[in-house]
Amino acid sequence: MNEYIVKKIKLTGLLAFIFLVSLSSCNAPQLGKSFFVARFKMDGRLDKSFQNEGVAFAAFDEGSAFGNIGSAPGNGSAAMAHAVTIDKNMRVVAAGCANVKGRNQIALARFEEKDGALDGNFGIGGRSLSGYDLGEFCEARALTIDFQNRILTAGFVQKSEGPDYSDLAIVCYTEDGKVDSSFGYEGTIITNFWKVRDEYAYAIGLSADQKVVVAGVGYEDEDMAQLVAARYTRDGDLDRSYGHSGRVVTEFTRDLSPELYDMAIDRSGRIIAAGRAFLNNKGQFAMIRYDSEGQRDRTFGLNGVATINMSGAGTERAAAVAVYPDGRIVVAGESDADAGGGGLVLVRFLSNGRPDRSFGGKGYVRVDIPPSRSETVSDVALDLSGRVVVIGRATMKDGQNKILLMRHHFDGKPDESLGGRGFILTGIPGASDQEARSLSVDPFGNIIVAGWADFNVREGEDAPENNQRPITKPSTPTIEDDPPAENETDDESTGSNGDQGN
What we know:
The chain has one helix spanning about 20, and strands at about 5-10, 35-40, 55-60, 80-85, 90-100, 105-110, 125-130, 140-145, 150-160, 165-175, 190, 195-205, 210-220, 225-230, 245-250, 260-265, 270-280, 280-290, 305-310, 315-325, 330-335, 345-350, 365, 370-380, 390-395, 400-410, 425, 435-440, 445-455, 480, 490.
């Protein structure tokens, strides 16, 4: 395992008012969404030694021992996995949410490496629920594991009273799945930030000295995202040497107006945020990097921002980001199909933010998935050989959704040892719909994928979007400080990268 463990999460659909989108996942128990983890062999086949023909499920219910619901798909309350990682014992740990007792709660499950069975030494029957007392909606969107084998999740907790409806939330668990009361306030940290509201955490990492670094977004108004970050000690106290009393808010101008879809934290504690920026009225792949103290890294790209425009259409977006050990950065996303290319795109940047032209010749490669009508990216990861592994969704011509898994060599060429074409399209057996949300690659090259599968969608009926606001307030104290002086904030100006591809 790397000394610096990184796991991050997707910011799907952030242009919609973010608290509405992020609640669309779990508050629909009648639809039968199930929390799943699948293991694929290096050649793309499901590993049938891993639980149910390669797919393992975790069911959650109201009983203190989860009743007798077991791990069968479709059982229990609606649940989704948003993040997955592998611990030092090769056990798979997945985190997300489950709607139990009428509230979204943080849901964790741990699966045995050998056969994918729920680990009976973790929580109750391999599963753990927490966050019931924090609020009506509480979700884990990222996780990591520290040197003490503690599991740390990052996400958000929803509140009942506006205008600030959510705060960044971190929960720490012991190795056996219990909330670690020695961390923060009874195992939980809830933090908000000055000048912004509706904060959500989407990335969590550990520095070399095991400090906890968390990054996410807050909103100045409904369509103006700002990056927020905080650093904490091992005990869960704010590290006052970081930013302003442990926290950072980066204020973007409307000239830059970025949409942030994913974040990662590298070995040096630098935060890389990926998405798209609108420059000259065109949406381009964009990344912004912050140094280990939470300040804009002016050595990266142009004034801390790296962009690349491949089609000229202005409808490109970077959806997922991963960082190589040497600091190079790979981004996966989508391009406009009406602009002479379309489909999926992989882009690699050097550590200074310039396109890495050893990747595909121009720093990027386009990917065509012939059987599908459209594709979206959910996550990207790197295996030990430096190959790029991507998980996402492909919508077929008949409207059905498939899980898309693809892998490319270090030079950007498709790895045809995966499915014969460098990609596979598959589904969860028996599910009417599914979505892969996160992936991790184990040291043997097996690909671990986590997400949700729906076993109960009514014919002709789509899953409803959840737009309900919460009705309870968190009882855990919220970290709040006076804001910094005006000249202490990192006000951002418009920037673009000097190297723009085509």
